[in-house]
Amino acid sequence: MERLEALEAFEELKQRLTHQRPAEWEAFPDIGLYMDQLVSYLPRQLIHYGEEPVLTSAMVNNYIKDGLLPRAEGKRYAQGHLAYLTAICMLKQVLSVKETNRLIAMGNQRKGSTQELYAYFCAQLDGALSETAQRLPEECAVEDLPRLALNLALRSYADRLACQRILDILAKTEPQPEKPEKKREKAGK
Prior knowledge:
Blueprint: H1 3-19, H2 35-41, H3 57-65, H4 79-91, H5 97-109, H6 114-135, H7 145-173
Helix pairs in contact: 1-6, 4-6
């Protein structure tokens, strides 16, 4: 990549971090989407680069099977499904499926509708993206990009480490399901 092209790509990244956000609840389609529509809709919700698919029908089915996502209503996915999948697709970039499931389950235990939880998620995402965009310098030479990338990677590592430890702490504070008692066998058998 040429130097000018690299700097233009860097500026485009900063612009996307500053301005691109997932659709708000009210902007979601108000009719249910079929699987193929759902899979084609979700990439618009995320900032992503590359050729890998953001979401496939197999992923959706696995999220349902793993309890991360409610089942479709008939064969259609509603606004709540779009909200969940937006969060899942972003969180899976930094958390395991198990950790993502735990975090979503904790959010669901709190009082509030899916719409309210999604609004909270979007507000937190906006803050995180804006903060990262502000950390990027106005002017940047190609030679500065490796150090900048290292700095961002280390911040990501530190944030992920703290997140995982907090999730572990929270898991220990949750009430554990009671194990069924084993029937005592009578003496002499």
